[in-house]
């Protein structure tokens, strides 16, 4: 079963599911897609935008109870997709921002136009605070395009790299272009995740991505990217 570390299924807290029916649709889609573990990751902008944390925990609990009632073999965990702010390291240390499944791993997002220096400083500070930075949909940033940069972030700051499953399967996607292909060829990608929202075009698609990766890189690599590597978060 796949592990999805980036998913917006908890309703009423961000631009993911808007109501419980939306959450239910996403759960069904994830189960049908072969996903067995989801870390739910609503958008949080620490210290700058208020986040309804009590609603988040209540809606997650409601979803877990509903999954159990329905007999879904799906484990749901707490998390957040953190839009990095200078307050982030402190608020992580104080336990005010959820990490991935309550681990030392923190899913970080940047604005597409943030500079490389800014991203480097962010992961350095998050690392110094005692956390492992995971860069969310790392294919999106103008500032991180060279393999040397991915290697710098990983080797010098312990960063993990997450790529969206949809990037792998999208028709006419840049996966077929040289650049994203090079990212996978170079082995810098740690996790594939769905970043699913309650929109048909943004539902889970791990199975298709798995098959595409297995075809191009072998089943062992495909398994590692869709779950094996993410086991470290739960250990
Ligand atoms: Fe996301």
In the CATH scheme, the class would be: Alpha Beta
SS-based class: alpha/beta
Order of helices and strands: EHEEHEEHEHEHEHHEHHH
Question: Which consecutive residue ranges, at least 5 long each, have pLDDT under 50?
Answer: none
Based on DSSP secondary structure assignment, what is the total number of beta strands?
Answer: 9
Output the CATH homologous superfamily. Answer: Metal-dependent hydrolases
The largest β sheet comes out as: 6 strands, parallel
Number of structural units classed as domains = 1
- State the CATH topology: TIM Barrel
Treating each run of at least 4 consecutive H or I residues as one helix, how many helices? 10
**pLDDT averaged residue by residue:** 94
Give the radius of gyration: 17 Å
Q: How far apart, in Å, are the first and last alpha carbons?
A: 17 Å
Per CATH, the architecture is: Alpha-Beta Barrel
β-strand percent reads 15-25%
How are the elements arranged and paired?
Layout: E1 2-7, H1 20-32, E2 35-40, E3 43-44, H2 53-70, E4 75-77, E5 81-83, H3 88-93, E6 105-109, H4 116-128, E7 132-135, H5 147-157, E8 160-164, H6 165-169, H7 178-185, E9 191-193, H8 206-217, H9 219-228, H10 231-234
Parallel strand pairs: 1-2, 2-4, 3-5, 5-6, 6-7, 7-8, 8-9
Helix pairs in contact: 8-9
Bound molecules: fe (ii) ion.
Fe (ii) ion binds next to loops.
Q: Would you write up a description of this structure?
A:
The protein has 235 residues and is α/β, with parallel strands linked by helices. The chain has one domain (2-234): Metal-dependent hydrolases (TIM Barrel, Alpha-Beta Barrel). It contains ten helices and nine strands. The protein has a six-stranded parallel sheet. It starts with a strand and ends with a helix. The mean pLDDT is 94. Fe (ii) ion (FE2) is lined by residues 6, 8, 81, 195.
């Amino acid at each position: 079963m796949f592990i999805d570390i980036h998913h917006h299924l908890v309703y009423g807290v961000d631009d993911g599911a808007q109501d419980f029916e939306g959450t239910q649709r996403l759960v069904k889609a994830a189960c049908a897609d072969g996903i067995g573990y989801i870390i739910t990751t609503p958008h949080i902008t620490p210290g700058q935008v208020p986040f309804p944390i009590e609603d988040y925990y209540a809606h997650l609990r409601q979803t877990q109870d509903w999954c159990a009632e329905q007999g879904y073999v799906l484990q749901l965990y707490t998390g957040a997709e953190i839009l990095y702010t200078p307050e982030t390291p402190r608020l992580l240390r104080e336990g005010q921002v959820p990490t991935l499944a309550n681990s030392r791993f923190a899913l970080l997002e940047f604005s597409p136009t943030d500079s490389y220096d800014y991203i480097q400083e962010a992961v350095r500070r998050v690392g110094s605070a005692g956390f492992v930075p995971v860069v969310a949909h790392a294919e999106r940033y103008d500032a991180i395009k060279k393999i040397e940069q991915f290697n710098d972030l990983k080797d010098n700051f312990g960063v993990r790299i997450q790529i969206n499953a949809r990037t792998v399967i999208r028709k006419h996607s840049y996966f077929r272009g040289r650049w994203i292909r090079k990212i996978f060829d170079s082995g810098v990608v740690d996790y594939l995740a769905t970043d699913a929202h309650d929109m048909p075009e943004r539902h889970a698609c791990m199975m298709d991505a798995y098959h595409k990766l297995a075809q191009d890189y072998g089943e062992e690599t495909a398994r590692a990217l869709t779950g094996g590597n993410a086991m470290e978060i739960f250990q």
